[in-house]
Every structure is written in structure tokens, then in C-alpha cells.
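Posting for a labmate who doesn't have an account.
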Amino acid sequence: MSLTTAATGRQVGYSTQQVRDLERLGVIPAAERAKNGYRRYRPHHVVALRAYRALAAAIGPVPARRLQPMLIHDPIGTAAERIDDLHVDLARSRGHLREALRGLDAVLADPAAVFDERDVMTIGELADALGVRTSALRHWEDEGLIAPDRSARSGARRYGARAVSEARIVAALRSGGYPLPPIALVLGQLRKDGMTDDTRALLEERLADLTRRSVALLEAAGYLHELLRDRAARQP
């Protein structure tokens, strides 16, 4: 069975131009060409379009456009690993956000508490815990988002409980696409007024978004599985 560009688009709710654009970007395999030069699409093109649409809902159109060509052209084992990584990344982001909320609540519950030396983290340890580069932590410090102490002897940065909590908040919101100026306002409000309804609502909104993306990725997984299964069936 072959389909015109328009008929292919109708299968998934895309316009003719969108189908052509996605083909040009490598999101779907190249169409066959009839003798008159018109594109002819097959069922596996529809599968690829459905997989892309579901993937874009889960991780966003731009990341999906980067990833889908790899799922089409990489070895099937590698493509499957890339899909697994999406689930891992979402789970990691959710874990970081929950740690940010827990750490923040602990600091606000007793802001004057003296923490044991074992609670202090180095810049490398904190970067590893957050999954960011040490240069990101330095940049956040330069922007006034976090304020580590300095060792009197070596001058090395030392992150106590408050600095760690603030760094977790920055990391959680940055992973959700929030720019630095709004994050600075959130942290400034926390330092001045403590936890407010608006602040917790922002963090809870980020958590809800991660949940929505996880559910969308579960839906996308079915289409992506069909995409890989179709690839395997068509391989010689």
C-alpha cells in the first residue's frame, strides 16, 4: 500500500508541508518516488510519524527531531538504548527535584542549625550529585544563586546544607528550561521570606511537568517499539 503526502499527513494529523519538512529533517525515512516524481509513502512512514509525534509530546519537538533520525538509522540495539536513556533521564530529574524539595524544607525548618562537617560537600562532589559540570556551579555562584563557604586554609569551596539545597533548586529548575533571572528571584524570595506558596507552587509545577512527560513517554514507547519492530522486519 502506498499513500500520497496528504493522505500520510491525515493519518497522524499533520499537514502536507509538515510531512515534507519532517522527511527533509530525517525524522522519517525518505519517501519513494513515483514515475511522475510524486512522493509515495508506505505504512512504515506512518509508524515513524506517529512515533515522532508521541516522542515530541514527551521530550519536546526539538530534542525529538534530533533523536528520531538516530532511532531510524542507528543499529537497533543502540536505538533501544537511547529510548531507555530517556526514561532514566526523567527519573533522574524527578529524583533531583524531590531532593531539592526535601533539602529546602529541612533548611527552612531550622535555618540556624549547625551542620556536621560530614554534611559539607566539595564542588566536585556536588557537581556529581547534581549531574552538572563544576563550571555550572561556578557560574551559578557568579550569578549570586548559590554561596558556598571557603576553606580558610586552601580557599576551596565548601557547600553546606543551605548551599546544597539552593544548588538542587537551581539544577531542578534549569533542567526544566527556566532561565537564571527567574530562578534568582525565587531564591531571593526564599532568603528573605522563607518558603512561600508561590515558590512551592513553582517547584510542584516542575514536578507535575515531569510526571506528564513520563506518562507521555510511556505512550511514546509503544510507537517507538513499533518503529523498531518495523525496522527489524524490513531488514534483509
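Reply:
Got it, the C-alpha cells are right above this. The first strand starts at residue 32 and ends at 33.
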